[in-house]
UniProtKB/TrEMBL annotation:
<dbReference type="InterPro" id="IPR001387">
    <property type="entry name" value="Cro/C1-type_HTH"/>
</dbReference>
<dbReference type="GO" id="GO:0003677">
    <property type="term" value="F:DNA binding"/>
</dbReference>
<protein>
    <submittedName>
        <fullName>Helix-turn-helix transcriptional regulator</fullName>
    </submittedName>
</protein>
<feature type="domain" description="HTH cro/C1-type">
    <location>
        <begin position="7"/>
        <end position="60"/>
    </location>
</feature>
<dbReference type="InterPro" id="IPR010982">
    <property type="entry name" value="Lambda_DNA-bd_dom_sf"/>
</dbReference>
<dbReference type="Pfam" id="PF01381">
    <property type="entry name" value="HTH_3"/>
</dbReference>
């Protein structure tokens, strides 16, 4: 994914239309469209785009489609970016669910044994 595609994808994630971002940047929608198709964007322009998207330039540079970014604010209202892979989270949750179900089955089997022993 090139830098232009990253800008476009982050714009979409933030729910900002191309015309709105272009207006924030003081450029035409056509100029923004061209930028979103560029392989490289100079640092000054990237700073302006990042500011308009309310993210840091590093968030744009390091953006990956398979990673979710959560912005958490510390006591000084400084943004701390936490990145995680949603697939890894789903797998971890599935593993927890599976472990819980195994414990539940063990408990039910134990209760069944106790009931059967009471009958004999």
């Amino acid at each position: 994914m090139n830098i232009g595609q990253k800008i476009a994808r982050l714009r979409e994630i933030r729910g900002i239309k191309q015309a709105d971002l272009a207006r924030r940047l003081g450029i035409t929608q056509q100029a923004l469209s061209k930028m979103e198709n560029c392989e490289v964007v100079d640092d000054e322009r990237l700073e302006r785009v990042a500011s308009a998207l309310e993210v840091s330039p590093d968030v744009i540079r390091n953006f990956r489609e398979d990673v979710i970014i959560n912005n958490v604010y510390d006591q000084n209202n400084t943004v701390i970016n936490y990145q995680f892979n949603p697939i890894e989270k789903i797998v971890a949750l599935y593993d927890q669910l599976l472990a819980t179900e195994r414990k539940r089955i063990e408990l039910l089997e134990t209760l069944l044994k106790i009931e059967q022993e009471k009958k004999h």
